[in-house]
Amino acid sequence: MAPKEPLVISNKDEMRKWSRAMRCQGKVIGLVPTMGYLHEGHLTLVREAHKHANVIAVSIYVNPGQFSPNEDLSTYPSDFDGDIRKLMSVPGGVDVVFHPHNLYDYGNDKRNSNVAIESDKTVSCVDQGGFGHETWVRVENLQKGLCGNSRPIFFRGVATIVTKLFNIVEPDVAVFGKKDYQQWRIIQRMVRDLDFSIKIVGSEITREDDGLAMSSRNVRLSMKDRQNALSINKSLLKAKSAAADGQVHSEKLRNLVIQCITEAGGQIDYVEIVDQENLEKVEFINGPVVLCVAAWFGKVRLIDNMEINLKMDVRK
Amino acid sequence: MAPKEPLVISNKDEMRKWSRAMRCQGKVIGLVPTMGYLHEGHLTLVREAHKHANVIAVSIYVNPGQFSPNEDLSTYPSDFDGDIRKLMSVPGGVDVVFHPHNLYDYGNDKRNSNVAIESDKTVSCVDQGGFGHETWVRVENLQKGLCGNSRPIFFRGVATIVTKLFNIVEPDVAVFGKKDYQQWRIIQRMVRDLDFSIKIVGSEITREDDGLAMSSRNVRLSMKDRQNALSINKSLLKAKSAAADGQVHSEKLRNLVIQCITEAGGQIDYVEIVDQENLEKVEFINGPVVLCVAAWFGKVRLIDNMEINLKMDVRK
């Protein structure tokens, strides 16, 4: 069978119209939100979506609302034609690619934009854009800690754009990668708290053959940094194995990871062991936890994580 | 024709199922969100909804998310049977009354609730309730000033519950009273910023024969306070007339209102003249403005407002 070419939609109303027509036909609509420059990890999300839905929409939109002006919005990689080809290579393909131009430009009412900049110390590229957008969704506890520390407006930007995408695409199921673990938990909580009728599926991390977690940012690593960055996955595996062997003291496991990454030339942003649900730090592992890491290699910030689910009988 | 008895739905999934069935039948769905204890003002909203929609849902839910613990949540009046009777008296009636029990109780995951209370100085009755709800929608500029000053968590509570109701009822049109002017503007902006596909209709203030703006709280006024509270509407009319006669200096008009209400025994919360769209204070009237008032009579806080749309040729 020839690969299916997706319908490309850039208009919000058209997107919603398609979705509502599908719903009235009894179809289950799946959404995979992405920022483009797709890799095997994204395609895994699409394959996962096929397990839960009859028709699949993939959104490709680099969201300025989650970037600080000092972050890498302008250099974020893109390759729209390549993305379409990759999506067509997935068995079953995708039905729609939603590719809007600017989801914050309402074409009027820009008078309030300056107020937002004055009143907020930490601004996003949207606040700076002067579009007058002023509504933000925050998941107030889960957005704290981990990536929330070094990227203070990131999760408000993510929760807000996902709300917008949900309201435009109106899916029944949405698939998020567990590589962005905190993001996945935030979206789950947001969906519950705001009564979206959407099932949130978390998809396991896709890794390169050598263990590096796939990321659109990996292409910006130098050869040397790319090699050194393998220390992240290696250290996570080492810590997981140490935990399985009875080391349940978080501080000890953290130090193991920090040492391994630092020795390889990485600069740690954070290494934390947190509860899988509420993402609060744990001193000792006595339930399902996740070991989360963010580290810089050169000018590239990478994140990764590993769930640790100890069986009761191996715990000390 | 016998008055139509509305279907009463308390379950979220059932509510959404009804709405989606209507949509697939091509019906336009109208929503009138209320906190119950309905009066003629609410019925005006329902009549307005009939102009825009084929089927009408009225929600009756006293939202703890917009009340501070020191406010009047526990004494907020209710009369469900009376409400149903009143809704049946409107020509065309209403199709559904959505009357949920507790929209913040998710039946699990209460572990985070304490964190919310510790980290926020101003809490709502939802934070105190310990349900673990932690997602809030804020319209960051419009929520400032006017009622936002004396009720710091009010509009985050309103924006959040309206988002929840929109996600549950999934209407095409929703009608809000312009008596709650700031709320109306906030919901309009939120709908734009979050890409809800919902038309927001503002319905004019309904007044008693003697001019008092209708409110569920009016029943709690003593006979004397009820009489004194007429000063609000009187002062607004006086200011509007002064503006029409050429007095465009906001301070002068404010003072006129303040004096009139204070002399009648009211205690001013605020009197402001603001731009109708962005609700920013204006020093001189040179465009569409609204004069907004909040004042206490006895233990009851009343709000009212009047739009002032001067024709260019009467301006000095």
Helix-strand blueprint:
Two copies of one chain form a homodimer.
Chain A: E1 7-9, H1 12-24, E2 29-34, H2 40-52, E3 55-60, H3 80-89, E4 96-98, H4 113-119, H5 125-129, E5 135-139, H6 147-150, H7 154-169, E6 173-177, H8 181-193, E7 199-203, H9 223-228, H10 230-244, H11 250-263, E8 267-275, E9 289-297, E10 300-308
Helix pairs in contact in A: 7-8, 10-11
Keywords (chains A, B): ATP-binding, Cytoplasm, Ligase, Nucleotide-binding, Pantothenate biosynthesis
Main location (chains A, B): cytoplasm
EC number (chains A, B): 6.3.2.1
* CATH homologous superfamily caption of the largest domain in chain A: HUPs
Specify the biggest β-sheet of chain A: 6 strands, parallel
**β-strand amount of chain A:** 15-25%
Which CATH class of the largest domain in chain A applies here?
Alpha Beta
| Stretches with pLDDT under 50, minimum 5 residues of chain A | 111-119
Q: How many domain regions of chain A?
A: 2
N-to-C CA distance of chain A: 55 Å
Most extensive chain contact? A-B, 43 and 43 residues
Q: What structural category arises from helix and sheet content of chain A?
A: alpha/beta
In CATH, the architecture of the largest domain in chain A is 3-Layer(aba) Sandwich
Subcellular location (chains A, B): Cytoplasm
Keywords (chains A, B): ATP-binding, Cytoplasm, Ligase, Nucleotide-binding, Pantothenate biosynthesis
EC number (chains A, B): 6.3.2.1
Protein name (chains A, B): Pantoate--beta-alanine ligase
